[in-house]
Amino acid sequence: MKCHQVTGGNVAPDFAELQQFSSPLYMAQAMWNHGPSMQEKMNDLNMNYPEITGDNIADLTAYIRQATLAETEIRMSPGNPSKGKLVFKKKGCISCHIVEDNEKKTGPDLTELNLNKSVTEIAAQMWNHSPTMIEYMKENAIEYPDFKGNEMADLIAYLYFLGFEDKPGNVDEGELVFIDKGCTDCHESGNENVGPDLSNLKSFNSRIKILQRMWNHGSRMEDLLIIQNDEWPELSIKEMQDLFAYLRSISKNQ
Q1: Where do the structural domains in the chain lie, given as residue ranges?
Q2: Binning pLDDT at 50, 70 and 90, where does residue 103 land?
Q3: Cα separation of 197 and 190, whole Å?
């Protein structure tokens, strides 16, 4: 309230201007775009940049909606992860943040963060990170990214799904897993009476399809293991990642 009013402030933008756009997604976008000018003003006033939580954004949105008594509301559409990936690249986020490879970059590795959270929680993490980012971008003459339209919603949707698929595994290590876990006992070329020749399968173009085939194959595999008096092979997360990579590499129909 020191800077913002809901009926006409003279230091910072009047929250009443946001009355029609009082949804958490729009609020997150407006706050992000306001970040650099707000930080500059707070530095002038010797004020600390406020850290916030997801609940803070939701509560602030509810307050503005009630205080301004907006007759109509304009909300963002739910985000599209595919479009969000394009926004991530277009706005230059990929220059500093790791999302798919292991190349060392300036910003945090987003694949290591838990971003499987609500819209406001992800937005709060972005907000709390912005002061460091603003300073770095100033020092390196990098333009601060503004968001328009549905871009913030799309970006948050993309960040939410970042951890849905793990990082790519190692093909060579996956081959060792395939051998060490006894997969070759049944899945070898020309041994169709026991298990299918995996190099001829057409559904290995995605990890989801590989997982589906493995799951559906489970009961038959268990029966064979009982007959052979073998134990069910357990896999670690890393072993599964590498095995997926190997299975995709041997498929003739990728």
Answers
A1: 15-160, 171-250
A2: low
A3: 7
Q: State pTM to two decimals.
A: 0.65
Q: What is the DSSP letter of 13?
A: -
Do residues 153 and 79 lie in contact, with contact meaning Cβ atoms separated by under 8 Å?
yes
Check residue 166 and give left, alpha or beta (phi > 0: left; psi -120 to 50: alpha).
beta
Query: Which of 2-16, 50-64, 103-117 is least confident?
Result: 2-16
Residue 83 has pLDDT above 80, yes or no: yes
Any idea what DSSP says for residue 220? H
**What pLDDT does residue 98 have?**
75
Do 113 and 100 touch, CB atoms closer than 8 A?
Answer: no
Which tokens hold the place of 163? 């951890």
Tokens 């775009």 correspond to what residue? 33
153 token code pair: 């919603």
Per-residue model confidence as pLDDT tens digits over 193-204: 567 777 666 656
C-beta separation of 65 from 75 below 8 A: no
Helix or strand or coil: residue 94? Answer: helix
Task: Give the span between the Cα atoms of 26 and 33, in whole angstroms.
Answer: 11
Q: Which of 114, 131, 103 is nearest to 42 (CA)?
A: 131
84 near 158, Cβ under 8 Å? yes
